[in-house]
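Hi L.,

You mentioned the student needs an example of a multi-chain input paired with its predicted structure. This one should do, with 568 residues in total across all chains.
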Amino acid sequence: MRARAPASAANLGPGFDVLAVALDLYVEVEVEPAPRLVVRSEGEGADLEEDDMHLAARVAIDVVGHDRLAVTVRSAIPVARGLGSSAALAVAAAAAAGSKDPLGVAARIDGHPENAAASVVGGLVAATLVRGAVRAVRMPLDGGLVFVAMVPERPLPTAKARQALPQEVSRTDATFNLGRLSLLLAGLADRSLMIREATEDRLHQDYRSPLFPEAPQLLARMVRAGALASCWSGAGPTLLGICDEEHGERVRAGAEQAMEEIGVPGRALLLRPDIEGLIVEGSY
Amino acid sequence: MRARAPASAANLGPGFDVLAVALDLYVEVEVEPAPRLVVRSEGEGADLEEDDMHLAARVAIDVVGHDRLAVTVRSAIPVARGLGSSAALAVAAAAAAGSKDPLGVAARIDGHPENAAASVVGGLVAATLVRGAVRAVRMPLDGGLVFVAMVPERPLPTAKARQALPQEVSRTDATFNLGRLSLLLAGLADRSLMIREATEDRLHQDYRSPLFPEAPQLLARMVRAGALASCWSGAGPTLLGICDEEHGERVRAGAEQAMEEIGVPGRALLLRPDIEGLIVEGSY
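Structure written out for the whole complex:
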């Protein structure tokens, strides 16, 4: 069986560990019966070790209950860049292995429920745990928004990015994020309401900047190039510009120029929201 | 000039200091020229001191710049119960005195921007400070929702309720509220998505319970009587049941019975969202 899942950008500033938007970069996973475990990987992530430690294999084995499987992965999602590659891979692998609950499987094994929810549902989603299970709800997303992803060459593993965060925050900062999250949701639903302050955050972005000192400057450059607002994508290092579609290409070019001028090698991608989410083809 | 503004319920669980919904209980303020300051007050709050310390008079004097005014207040909003009476009064007084920015005036003098925003805009609003000014955005609200307000006889001044709150919270709790706020906004936009967990909160409600020990039990009783979810209204002591309109009267009756059985004298009101917000009539 074969399944395809989109990349996703989580957090989006104030929506820390909750919000994610699916983007039109995809990973496809095929799972077939085989005499013994074979993992093939093409595209992004193909340089990772191709054995039973491969996430797609681990997920497929978990779902099927044995390892006599051929698992083929074709991915266009940069790995360890904050674009939800592992969540998308886990979702697609679970579905390709025949799981009826790819979101639950992916959240349990990979641990990023908001990314996994975006990869399953598509569009803009909020996901959070309710009585131990992931509850995902789709939130309205203006069809005229596009996203520019600045993808630095250097990876930034999520675990390291998370260690930078404080355990305690002030009530003022917690409340600040609630207000900004509301503004952000209003702006994502209707882009005429989007303001650059809607992506301001006090729970994670600033704490992560020491790991990526050029980030604040790059974020500001995207807004100067015409983005409505900008933020980290997931735990970074990818940075995201939220743009009116008519300014998308201009912001992408401006982002590429900014990376060059500031000395951060990488690429800038112009992405559209994916609204289909997980697609499963064929039968096992 | 005469102006009318609706009551409001703020916070709604996870939307601490951000979210508020306007409700169909009103205060009307009339401001007219007079040889010297005269304040008349009818209805709720009429027992408060009728002099220049009256909030409506302070606001009107601030707007007009002198105190040669006759200020008449007619209110159906219970005072110091968490139904935004002071914000509604300040908004209506500012408008009746001719202010072009009643939201700004009310937020500055009364200090509850989310309540004031709901009283001005109507419906469901999120309000937060952006560069020192209140920014209010309207959020979608399902037309089939009604609200049951359990209004205890005892007042609970906001300042006291706020002193009960901690200055620091865990990052986990801050993130918890972001997730619940998203679920709540989804459920308020489409009542078929409302679940009781959507009003769960870790920033204020539990800390306030010692001031009103019967609150958790009363909140649970509203859900048992058929409310989709329940929460504190503002800083309390009013408690709110969020209901499908077809179950509103049943929840109201259940709320009244619960107050009697648990020994909290008061009344239960069945309220609809106000969607008009501030209305100004006549000219000064």
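You could point out the following to them. The mean pLDDT of chain A is 94. The CA atoms of residues 2 and 30 of chain A lie 4 Å apart.

Best wishes,
N.
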